[in-house]
Design goal:
By secondary structure, this protein is an alpha/beta fold. 40% of the residues lie in helices and 17% in strands. The N and C termini lie far apart (50 Å).
Length: 312
């Protein structure tokens, strides 16, 4: 962390005032979706924080570090590419602290995401759906290069403040909430910040924990925010040496688990949360005993089109 002499102290104070509303999410026990009585599955309900998703953690930390370094101040616009949830987290924080924001995202982002971003005052730049978030990143970099004085480009896929938000907080929360009993951590790969940061933190605290990363089974999938790393641009913050095991999850498995989680657990999950649950169940069913923890990045509130299709 570098503290600039040109720090915008008033802006930094506003960012710090949001800390109590970031993280510290509850750990929910999954009781009815595994046949192995000797394994417990827990999931962090990440929608229960400012901005409504796990992305509140990195968004707040990225903004905080940028203000501390002097890169972000009043008069400069926050800019980044996103599939949606990070953009909403950024826009929520930006509205609260009073800074302008430009979000670049694929044109096939859900109507709910676009509506929420517009309501929070974000300027939207839409890119081709065929280029996914890789295309959005390319456009964001172009905007920054065209007007470098106007924008602070957060670049969540390469910004170490992304994974460090989980390294410094999510991992400690999980260890405390499980009373140090966690044996396996399971999470999907998007920006990869959640998996990399949480795993690094947990491994330092307890090197016996196993780490399982998840990604879509194919390049064409319905797990919004996830990356098929074999065909997509690999985020700069990704570390291939962290995962002990890598599992592939299909969109069909995730959609079926949305149905089952609503009936058996009373949870209306997003596709990515359901995919994480699929992975956690697979790991649980392969163990003799253990405590498996996963992340539910968000709930189903922003996925009405998908849920209508699933529950029709």
């Amino acid at each position: 962390m570098t503290v600039s002499p040109a720090i915008d102290s008033a802006l930094f104070e506003k960012v710090e005032q949001l800390k109590p509303f970031i993280g510290n999410t509850p750990l929910f026990p999954i009781k009815n979706m595994t046949n192995n009585p000797n394994v417990v599955i827990y999931a962090k309900l990440e929608w229960m924080q400012l901005g409504g998703s796990v992305k509140a953690r990195p968004a707040h930390n990225i903004i905080r570090e940028a203000v501390l370094s002097g890169e972000l101040h009043q008069g400069r616009t926050l800019l980044d590419a996103t599939s949606g949830n990070t953009g909403i987290a950024y826009a929520t924080i930006a509205a609260s602290i009073g800074i302008p924001i430009t979000i670049v995202l694929p044109e096939n982002a859900s109507n709910e995401r676009i509506t929420i971003l517009k309501s929070l005052g974000a300027e939207l730049v839409l890119t081709s759906k065929f280029d996914a978030t890789d295309g959005a990143q390319k456009k964001a970099r172009a905007l920054k290069n065209e007007d470098p004085d106007k924008y602070f480009y957060a670049d969540q896929y390469a910004n170490e403040a992304n994974w460090k938000a989980h390294y410094n907080n999510t991992s400690q929360e999980i260890l405390y909430q499980t009373k140090s009993s966690i044996t396996h951590f399971v999470a999907g790969l998007g920006t990869t910040g959640t998996f990399i940061g949480t795993s690094r933190g947990l491994r330092e605290l307890n090197p016996t924990i196993h780490f399982i990363s998840l990604q879509p089974e194919t390049a064409l999938h319905g797990l919004e925010g996830w990356k098929h790393l074999e065909t997509a641009k690999v985020p700069e913050i990704y570390d291939n040496d962290i995962a002990d095991i890598n599992l592939k999850i299909s969109t069909g498995e995730a959609y079926e688990t949305i149905k089952q989680a609503s009936k058996k657990e009373g949870l209306i999950l997003s596709p990515s949360s359901a995919a994480n649950l699929v992975g956690a169940i697979k790991v649980a069913n392969s163990l003799k005993s253990g405590v498996v923890v996963t992340i539910f990045p968000d709930n189903g509130d922003k996925y009405s089109e998908v849920l209508t299709q699933i529950f029709k």
